[in-house]
Amino acid sequence: NAGVMQNPRHLVRRRGQEARLRCSPMKGHSHVYWYRQLPEEGLKFMVYLQKENIIDESGMPKERFSAEFPKEGPSILRIQQVVRGDSAAYFCASSFKDGNTIYFGEGSWLTVV
Amino acid sequence: LAKTTQPISMDSYEGQEVNITCSHNNIATNDYITWYQQFPSQGPRFIIQGYKTKVTNEVASLFIPADRKSSTLSLPRVSLSDTAVYYCLVGDINTDKLIFGTGTRLQVFP
C-alpha cells in the first residue's frame, strides 16, 4: 500500500512566482490535511479538505494561499506570488472518513529565492 | 481543543528505556491520544495511538491513566536512531483538526 505521496519533494521559486504542491492521499483515504513547518519549528495546521470540499481553512493565510481536493486527482496547495517567508516544508496528511489517525507524506520543501 | 504539554528535550543513552510524558488536562470524551516521531527533513511518522489504559505495539507502549489527563510514551531500549522529535497530539479528527505542540526533542547518546 503506497503511503501519502507528495511532489515535488523540493521546489525553488523566485519571489513573485507561483508554487504548486501536490498530494495524493493513501488509498481509500478521503480526507486531506496540509501543515507547514518553518525551520526549527513545529507543524502548523493550514487546511483540512474532503473531496471537493474545504472543511477547515482556519490556518491558511488570507491572501495568496489556496487549496483544493478535486473529485479526481491529487490535492493541490497553491501559493501565488511567493515571498521569502513562504520558504518552508509543507506536509500533507490523509485519513479515512471515519478514522482516528492521520498519516503524513514526506513533505515538499519550498525555497523562495 | 485539548492543549498538550511535553518536556522540550530529553537525553538518554543507548539501551535505556525512555518515558516521555504528555499532559492534556482538558481532554474531551471523544479525543484519542496519538504520538508521532519526526526525523529531520522527514514527515511525522505515526508511532502509537490509544484511548485509555495501555497500548503496545512493536515500537512502543502508551500508558494512559484512568482520568486520561496525561499519557506516557515508553520506548524500550532506545538506540541512536531513536534520536528525533516526538509529538503528542490529542483530538478527534472526525470533529476537528489535530494541533501539534512543540514536541520533545530526544537525544540518544552512545
What share of the residues of chain A does DSSP label as strand, in percent? over 45%
Overall residue-averaged pLDDT value of chain A: 93
Mean pLDDT of chain B: 93
Q: Would you identify the regions of chain B where 5 or more consecutive residues have pLDDT less than 50?
A: none
- Count of strand segments of chain B: 9
Number of strands of chain A: 11
The shape of chain A is: globular
Termini Cα gap of chain B:
39 Å
Please identify the structural class of chain A as seen in this structure: mainly beta
- Oligomer, anyone? heterodimer
> Largest inter-chain interface?
A-B, 27 and 22 residues
N-to-C order of helices and strands of chain A: EEEEEEEEEEE
Number of helices of chain A: 0
Specify the structural class of chain B: mainly beta
Q: What is the helix content of chain B?
A: under 10%
Query: Could you name the ranges of chain A where pLDDT drops below 50 across 5 or more consecutive residues?
Result: none
Computed CA radius of gyration of chain B, to the nearest angstrom: 13 Å
Order of helices and strands of chain B: EEEEEEEEE
Largest sheet geometry of chain A: 7 strands, mixed
